[in-house]
Amino acid sequence: MTYILGIESSCDDTSAAVLADTTMLSNVTANQEVHRKYGGVVPELASRAHQQNIVPVIHEALQVSGIQKEELHAVVFTRGPGLLGSLLVGTSFAKAFALGLDLPLIEADHMQAHILAHFIQMPGEKKKVPEFPFLCLTVSGGHTQIVLVKDYFEMEIVGQTIDDAAGETFDKAAKIMSLPYPGGPVIDILAAAGNPDRFPFPHPQAIGFDYSFSGLKTSFLYFLRDNLKSNPDFIDENKEDLSASLQKTIISILMHKLTLAAEHYGIRQIAIAGGVSANSALRHAMHQAQDSKGWETFIPPFSFTTDNAAMIAVSGYFKYLQKDFTTHSAAPYTRGGIG
Predict the structure, then answer these.
(1) What is the pTM of this model?
(2) Distance between CA 32 and CA 35 in Å, rounded?
(3) Which of 1, 114, 168, 256 is most buried, taking the most CB atoms under 10 A from its CB?
């Protein structure tokens, strides 16, 4: 049995997890409520909160797992992409922890880890995992990508946003409507009570399997501006229908390009990952596609849609098997990822 400690600190969640091979023994996350009043993540505040949270979070992850730190076989940390200050906290702690215990140090790519979260097993269970090759739609506040997954670390981005990410579009639209932060989940809740066909919004076009959401975001802004001129209460009176219509448009755009990619590569094993994979409409669309297109779909548990250390640890486990270790000179990177 191989015991892996994973550390995640790419944005505003401080997380630590312990895995026994691919089985999760613990997965502890400290959220940062301080950002709510600012309507978005403040990098300096995030890095300070990581410094406060990282020791107690790792201590709790080890306690919950029942594994002593001396029993660990390796430490894996998120090297990037993410916020530099946040990444530095996790990177520095992982290096010191590994050095103190003379453990191998492993780096993880945050976006690869979101995809590899599909391989995490829960104690006493044996769930089906994707078979290679498969396609994964990774959608979050910062990324929107269609990834061709040929092996654990052989991944190719075949489509991605050329401007804004889908999650960013949700959050910016919510901010325009003065909804609480984070806005994506709020829109999802409001949409459940709305009419998704009430307000038609444009579907921006991009070449191949790429996405574009900036035009939709601008169109939504102008639509609200024009209607507020004649009715100052337009948003309050129509927020459910606005949320449902916007959500339907975004999910339709995501699924259209994913379908094209699946047809092009002749792949029926389709997964989703990232924060927006928690969206109820996207999950419903995936279930529908499984029936109508004959896909075998893989939808992550809600606990693995957000940033978490279990996905970092499982990525580290597969690298441990390959003896793919990193050095203590490894520096965080803020952009890029996957390959």
Answers:
(1) 0.94
(2) 7
(3) 114
